[in-house]
Amino acid sequence: MDRRFRIARVWSNRELRRLAPLFKGDIVNVSAWDDRDKEGGYYKDYFTQKNQYYLTNYSGDRGLQGKENEYFLDLTQELPSELEKRFDVVFNHTTLEHVFEVRKAFQNLCLASRDIVIVVVPFCQKQHGKDMYNDFWRFTPTCLRYLFQENGLEVIYEAQNQDENAAIYLLFVGSQHPEKWRQLMPPYKELKECGDWIGRPLYPPGFQLLKNTLTRFKKALVNTKN
User: Fold this and answer.
1) What's CA 193's distance to the chain center, in Å?
2) Domain of 99?
3) Per the domain annotation, does 138 fall within a domain?
4) Number of domains in the chain
5) What pLDDT digit, counting tens, does each position of 144-199 carry?
């Protein structure tokens, strides 16, 4: 995987490994493909206190796998009644940017959960998409807070990676019962300046001055020789 994408994926996996053991019950990875974490592991192994683990997928070139505990789910349509409040934790990693009807998709994630929704989305990333999986959206922390709020969930955790020259992901956790998690989750800190690296000089202080001085020196040498 390209370094610019890999750094954000490794960061989000590290965050998930830290948080996932807190959650119990029935867990579902929505639009999961085959659940691989792109580091040689599987997300199901992150949730060490799970009761049952499920996948959902949509038909297409990266669609249904025919695996045990796998559901067909089109996030742009009404949620099937049998999936309403079916899971204790709904987890979704870097899918929402590919769904044009993003508010409907987010609503379905929340409707499927009895409590927790975990999403990982790009704040900043190279446009990526092919065939039926187009690339439509990038998300800010404010956007995610509003999406959770309009679906009756409160954000109980939010984080970003802060790597330069790499994709920036956001990881948010929302809950229908936030009071239950206040003593269990890491302290909640609201992201204030997501992407504050944008606009910083690419070179360290003084580098450009040194570069300009060397350029003038080379030109002077050339003129002397001539």
Assistant:
1) 17
2) 3-198
3) yes
4) 1
5) 999 999 999 999 999 999 888 889 999 999 999 999 999 999 999 999 888 877 76
**Which of these, 170, 148, 169, lies nearest to 158 by C-alpha position?**
170
- In the block, tokens 């959206």 appear at 137
- CA dist., res. 53 & res. 87, Å (int): 9
Smallest Cα–Cα separation from 94: which of 115, 59, 125, 130? 125
Backbone angles phi, psi at 36, to 5 degrees: -70, 145
Q: What CATH number has the domain bearing residue 63?
A: 3.40.50.150
- pLDDT one-digit tens code per residue, 52-92: 999 999 976 667 888 889 999 999 999 999 999 999 999 99
The answer to whether the CB of 49 falls within 8 A of the CB of 21 is yes
Kindly state whether residue 217 falls inside one of the protein's structural domains.
Answer: no
Tell me if 220 is assigned to some domain: no
Give the chain's radius of gyration (CA, Å).
Answer: 22
Contact 26, 51 (CB under 8 A): yes
Contact 36, 57 (CB under 8 A): no
Report the distance separating Cα 103 and Cα 204, nearest Å: 41
How far apart CA 22 and CA 144 sit, in angstroms, is: 22
Predicted TM-score (pTM) of the model is: 0.86
Residue type, 18: R
Structural domain includes residue 127: yes
What distance in Å separates the CA atoms of residue 64 and residue 71, rounded to the nearest whole number? 8
Instruction: Give the whole-angstrom CA distance, residue 212 versus residue 215.
Output: 5
